[in-house]
Amino acid sequence: RDRLKSGQVPVTPPATSPACQHRLWPEIESVVKQQVAWARTGIGECGQGWQLFAEDGEMRMYRREEEVDGMAVDPLKAVHTVPGITGHEVCHYFFGPQYRYDWETTLEQMTVLETVSDDTLVFLQTHKRIWPASQRDVLFWSHMRKLPNENDRDGPDLWTVVNNSTTHLDYPPNVGKCVRIYLKVCLLCQTRVDPPKDGAPLTRDNISCKITYCSVVNPGGWAPASVLRAVYKREYPKFLKRFTAYVVNQTKNKPIMF
Ligand code: 18C
Questions:
Q1: Residue 10 binned pLDDT confidence (cut-offs 50, 70, 90)
Q2: I need a labelling partner for 113 at 20 to 30 A (CA). Which of 19, 59, 95, 160 fits?
Q3: 235 CA to centre of ligand 1 in angstroms
């Protein structure tokens, strides 16, 4: 059963989530709902214009060419299925700042500007420069959430991380050498379990994770569309393959984290 497509997964968090006291909370709540709904929409239901631009094993990446003020802001949607890991593990390594330098190859510097709660952080990142364009930075909140499996109490939960650009009085955009980019990113993960027939204990051979990754990045300033699309084409597949291989490697000798 594919709950990502079933339209039956609630996205309301437990009322006890500590982040719900914060000024950003109404925005987090609405963006998470919107992004999760979008991530759960199959490519066939997304409308016209989606092109498959990268394919490798189970991984498929689609984009739709879109421009705002002459700048390419192509939405991206990627799906992947990776054996041996859970959705909770994938989200844990994607969200945790302590792992980011290990897998994020375009990163130059990362700072946590605010710890809103265990599941919500505000990040400032600078990324490597692509000559001849200006270097980019990005300031965003990041929220990790379990989406309980209420239809099947014994089934694994869905997990998501949503990243969304925000502002910070102490870090206004475009004042130093960097141009600020604006992003919306959603990573949505569903664990699949294929229990051993003989009632033997569950191992990593019995699990896999269906990953959906959606993003829209506005480059924030001049960037030739052809160069930008070439960067997308190279960097997104590299990211998803490297990041998922990292999670497999980090978890292989650890107990399964459902
Ligand atoms: O989602 C991802 N990562 C998260 C945690 O870091 C988070 C942050 C995303 C930042 C994405 C923007 C990165 C800009 C990078 C600039 C390009 C550097 C290339 C250097 C090559 C040596 O959500 C995973 C993100 C995977 C990133 C894929 C690349 C996206 C390219 C976007 C281009 C943005 C404009 C660049 C301007 C230069 C144009 C010529």
A1: low
A2: 160
A3: 7
pLDDT tens-digit map of 223-233: 889 999 999 99
Distances (CA, A) of 215 to 39, 78, 85, 175, 224: 10, 9, 22, 25, 19
Q: Give the Å distance between the CA of 106 and the centre of ligand 1.
A: 6
Does the CB atom of residue 228 touch ligand 1 within 6 A?
Answer: yes
CA–centroid distance, residue 116 to ligand 1 (Å): 24
Matching residue, tokens 């421009």: 67
- pLDDT value at 16 more than 80: no
Rounded to whole angstroms, the Cα distance separating 137 from 128 reads: 9
As a whole number, mean pLDDT of residues 191-202 equals 92
For residue 153, what are its two tokens? 């109490």
Q: Could you list the beta-strand ranges (E) of the chain.
A: 51-56, 59-63, 67-68, 71-72, 76-83, 107-117, 120-127, 136-147, 158-165, 179-180, 182-193, 207-218
73 with 66: CB under 8 angstroms?
yes
Measured distance CA(126)–CA(107) in Å, rounded: 6
In DSSP terms, 107 is beta-bridged to 127
How far is 145 from 91, CA to CA, in rounded Å? 9
- Give this complex's ipTM: 0.95
The pLDDT of residue 223: 86
